[in-house]
Design brief:
- With about 325 residues, the chain is of the alpha+beta class.
- Helix content is about 20%, strand content about 20%.
- About 45% of the residues are buried.
Length: about 325
């Protein structure tokens, strides 16, 4: 879906490199007003379609939203399809597709009952949003703030009245060095964009692999990771700034004192030892927090043959009170 306009994402047949400006609403302070906002890589403008909620379906429905770092979508397609069939999330955000744009298994995922939008990239990166029985309305396929950044780490779409982002933040290792600097700069760009989304008034879920274990409760008891970018104080501070006072870390809100893990490295028997980290998060905008009713981690998926080193994390939102 990269490079298509929102009109194309809605299934319209005409090509519109400059669709009617009245259909779009700029929501980031200081963002340019033209050319009109398009959910495509070539525009670095934070925007959503003015009628995104109506286009994305009924609003206020009960929803199950999950995030899953699949760690190669084609190699682990059977694992993904089995999980989708068993758990039936309404929305699934995927990370680390490790597939070119034209190599994404759209047909197999559609046969499983899900429509999708994605930003692919060979070898590393790649993100997607899947929606069961609905077509995600693509609003953005890059994180704004650095036009030179071509890494496929962010995609955003409206599904059933909720704006959802699938996020794959940089790992940041080795540290110190340019990769860690890039991570901190990327997280700061995400914070600024998240603020713009929140100020728009849209109900928003930021879901994905943030590559940060926010506190010591989010990693098994060890000192072996102390110098790692996943737990470094600067990484944790960047995550705290992102969450701030406005966003709700859904799983930690539901399980304030529990050691929850979503990632277990393949090395050193970390899965059998339950030596994990919580790197995958779902952050809710203030106007969604009161609809949060359940959430957890599908740990058993990590134990399957050929599994990703991550397990899916999920939340359930109650229907909006009428």
């Amino acid at each position: 879906m990269v490079g298509r306009t929102v009109d194309q994402a809605l299934g319209r047949t005409f090509l519109a490199t400059q669709p009617p400006a009245s259909r779009y609403r700029v929501i980031e302070r200081g963002a340019p007003t033209g050319p009109p906002c398009v959910g495509a890589l070539q525009w670095n403008v934070a925007c959503v379609p003015a009628d995104w909620a109506a286009a994305a379906g009924e609003t206020g429905e009960a929803m199950k939203i999950a995030t899953f770092n699949i760690n190669n979508v084609n190699r682990r397609l059977a694992n993904l399809l089995g999980w989708l069939e068993q758990e039936r999330p309404d929305v699934a955000c995927l990370q680390e597709l490790k597939a070119d744009q034209d190599a994404f298994p759209e047909a197999a995922i559609r046969e499983a009952g899900y429509e999708s939008v994605w930003a692919g990239q060979r070898t590393w990166n790649g993100v997607a949003i899947l929606a069961r029985g609905a077509k995600p309305v693509l609003t953005r396929a890059e994180l704004p703030g650095d036009p030179s950044d071509r890494q496929a780490r962010y995609i955003e779409a409206a599904v059933r009245g909720v704006l959802i982002a699938s996020i794959y933040a940089p790992n940041g290792n080795p540290r110190p060095g340019p990769k860690f600097d890039y991570k901190l700069a990327w997280l700061e760009r995400l914070r600024k964009h998240a603020t713009a989304l929140r100020r728009s008034g849209a109900p928003v879920v930021l879901a994905g692999d943030f590559n940060v274990a926010p506190t010591d409760l989010d990693i098994y008891k060890t000192k072996s990771w102390e110098d790692d970018a996943l737990v470094h104080p600067d990484s944790r501070a960047a995550f705290r700034r992102l969450v701030g006072r406005s966003w709700t870390d859904a799983l930690r809100h539901l399980h304030p004192d529990e050691r929850l893990y979503t990632f277990w490295h393949y090395r050193r028997m970390r899965w059998p030892r339950d030596a994990g980290l919580r790197l995958d998060h779902l952050l809710l905008s203030p106007n969604l927090a009161n609809r949060l009713v359940a959430g957890g981690v599908d740990r058993e998926v990590r134990g399957l043959e050929g599994a990703s080193d991550h397990a899916p994390a999920w939340i359930e939102l109650a229907a909006e009170a009428s």
